[in-house]
Amino acid sequence: MTATQSQTDFDPTSYDPCSPEVKSNVEEHFSELRRKCPVHRHNFSEDQLRDLNDNAFVSGRVDEMYSITRYRDVEACLQSPDLFLNIEGTGPERMRPPPGGGTLTWSDGEAHKRSRKITQPALSPRAIAPLNPMLQNRIDNLIDGFADQGHGDIMKDFSLPLTSGMLTYLLGLPGDKADMLQEWAFAILSIWGGDDDAVTRGTKAMAEIGAFVAEVGPQRVAAVENGEDLTDALSMLLTTPDGNGSYFSQGEVVNALAQLIAGGFESSATAITNGVYLFLTNPTELEKLKTRPELIKTAVEEVLRYMAPIEGLFRTTSADTDLAGVHLAEAVKVRAVFASANMDEEEFTNPREFRIDRDRAELQKHMTFGKGVHTCLGNALARQELKLAFTSLFRRIPTLALDPTNEPTRNKLMIIHGYDSLPVTWDPASVRPRTEAAATG
Q1: What confidence tens digit (pLDDT) does each residue in 122-135 have?
Q2: At what angle do helices 160-171 and 250-264 cross, to 10 degrees?
Q3: Domains plus CATH for the chain?
Q4: 144-173: per-residue pLDDT in tens?
């Protein structure tokens, strides 16, 4: 379907959430689905079924998935965690439940409450605030590193190294391990691909994370017990009790770290890259931000609303139920599509208009970090990364523009919504030094 195709021509059965062609203009599909088929059923192809079911980590076969695209229906799903479960994974597969009830996004009920209580202090706004000087320094170092080139790729040269570097520090890994962290993240995500080599890489990454925890964990615990104030996430995961005085086992720490690594840098990097694209293609809004820098907080929320970096996440139904007039059987995979809910005309005024001074009350409704008990724990760090990234980039490189000779490309993975390559150009002579940029703010 093209952006100019008549609405009456749209056939909901043509929507394939796994299709790279659909991903190239997925927003148009979401608009039509909200209107004609708000709970969309997709029957997997034979190739897709092999990928989904021929995997040592799956617990049961899947043949279909349902995408929920309207805001009110996504909200109903997220606010019913006993009916729409996380325990079989947030992807389209029915993954084998982890022992002990699981952790974080791979858990439900009391196990989820416990793991969230242990993990939350490491990712709270209070824990993130002291990182601001380091975050700003890393942003400026990256800009200094490519300032004289006059061209580059925002994702490759800026967004990914920024977010992976900050996550490396937050998790307590050595500073030179940012590349390794990226490899771990992509390998862990590949476990759910069905390919034997991908599963091997993912399993190897989990083993390496386990070896790291086994090596440095006892040292971190001993240091905390001796009175050292260690605030890295690994130390806090190892030494923070739940409400009943118990702690994560080593296996639970490894699982929690793996989830933070897999979900903690690519989504933020995609959000930064999406935001740069949105500002460069909406020059009036960029000028508004430059003249009214106090709008940066609402600007960040509008970027997150307009182009949610995670297209949607899955749940598994715990019983037969009905949603928006569609019957969902027990144990089917249901996808809450955040990127569509954020564009619902019934909830947002002119949702396809990118406007950084949008009403705050309206922006608070966006679903980008989920909603309810599984709201993303990493939202404070993500928001701060976006805030400082946009402020610094547009202050220090006032001539930043899309590269007219290289088209941006969109991520083709079903879970990711946005750009994985954003070629840009600028006049090196226009780049402002970091001290001047800091002095103006």
Answers
A1: 998 888 888 899 99
A2: 160
A3: 7-440 (1.10.630.10)
A4: 999 999 999 999 999 999 999 998 888 888
